[in-house]
């Protein structure tokens, strides 16, 4: 017996309804068509019966939980003043003779202070992507 002829579960129905919901969101189905097909999915006993209701729709890609590996924008914005100020400090240091590297006392403590929220922001952003 093929898997399509097995009785459908509630999870199967929800999967097909989600496919219909996406098709309606894309404009492929009207609200009335969506409602009619949802009622017919709930009335279907097998997966084969439900597949007939989505056969005229394009196949949906299986989506996996995506992880957003980008650095949050607020972290980038937080580091921009640090970079600008330290570039200015190094330019002043070079213009005044490049002796003792005093910009260290601006860059390092401020940079260490920024590392804590940066680490928190990146670790919170590395989980599953939320809708």
Question: How is this structure best described in words?
Answer:
This protein is an all-alpha fold and 131 residues long. It is 63% helix and 0% strand. It has 5 helices and no strands. The chain has helices at 10-25, 31-43, 47-54, 73-95, 104-125. The two termini are 38 Å apart. The mean pLDDT is 85.
Brief account:
The chain contains 5 helices and no strands. The chain is mainly α and 131 residues long.
Quaternary structure type: single chain
| Main pleated-sheet profile | none
Query: How much β-strand is present in the residues?
Result: under 5%
Radius of gyration, CA atoms, in whole angstroms: 28 Å
Estimated structural class = mainly alpha
Low-confidence runs of at least 5 consecutive residues: none
Give the end-to-end Cα distance, rounded to a whole number of Å.
38 Å
Portion of residues in helices? 55-70%
DSSP E strands, number: 0
> What pattern of helices and strands is seen along the backbone?
HHHHH
* General shape: rod-shaped
Mean pLDDT: 85
Question: What is the count of helical runs?
Answer: 5
Ordered list of secondary-structure elements with their pairings:
Elements: H1 10-25, H2 31-43, H3 47-54, H4 73-95, H5 104-125
Helix pairs in contact: 1-2, 1-3, 4-5
Write out key terms for the chains shown:
131 residues, mainly alpha, 5 helices, 63% helix, rod-shaped
């Amino acid at each position: 017996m093929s898997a399509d002829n097995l009785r459908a579960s509630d999870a199967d129905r929800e999967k097909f309804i989600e496919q219909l919901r996406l098709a309606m969101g894309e404009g492929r189905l009207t609200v009335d068509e969506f409602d009619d097909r949802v009622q017919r999915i709930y009335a279907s006993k097998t997966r084969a019966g439900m597949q007939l209701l989505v056969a005229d729709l394009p196949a949906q890609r299986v989506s996996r939980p995506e992880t957003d590996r980008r650095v949050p924008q607020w972290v980038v914005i937080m580091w921009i003043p640090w970079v600008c100020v330290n570039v200015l400090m190094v330019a002043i240091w070079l213009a005044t003779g490049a002796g003792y590297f005093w910009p260290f006392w601006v860059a390092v403590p401020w940079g260490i202070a920024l590392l804590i929220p940066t680490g928190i922001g990146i670790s919170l952003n590395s989980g599953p992507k939320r809708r």
